[in-house]
Design goal:
alpha+beta, Alpha-Beta Plaits, 4-stranded antiparallel beta sheet, 2 helices, globular
């Protein structure tokens, strides 16, 4: 079963379009949406496991120019 997370992203002023375009090219990022409110972008990521999500966020999302801060929300299965 794959692990899924919502990554809430704050970006520097004027950088939202650039960050969205870059994140859309990152493997494992399933969707990227610009939003209103306390965050500027929400990205949905899916990877084989939680550790792979952590690796994706720290290596491939945090390194994108213009990103100021992220909050990663892992999904859980309620059974």
């Amino acid at each position: 079963m794959t692990a899924k997370a919502f990554v809430l992203i704050e970006v520097a002023v004027g950088k939202t379009k650039d960050v969205v375009a870059t994140l859309q090219k990152v493997e494992g990022v399933k969707s990227v949406e610009a939003v209103t409110g306390p965050y500027d972008i929400i990205a949905v990521v899916e990877m084989p496991d939680v550790n792979a999500i952590g690796d994706l966020v720290t290596r491939n999302i945090h390194s994108v120019g213009g990103i100021a801060r992220t909050v990663t929300c892992l999904t859980v299965q309620l059974t």
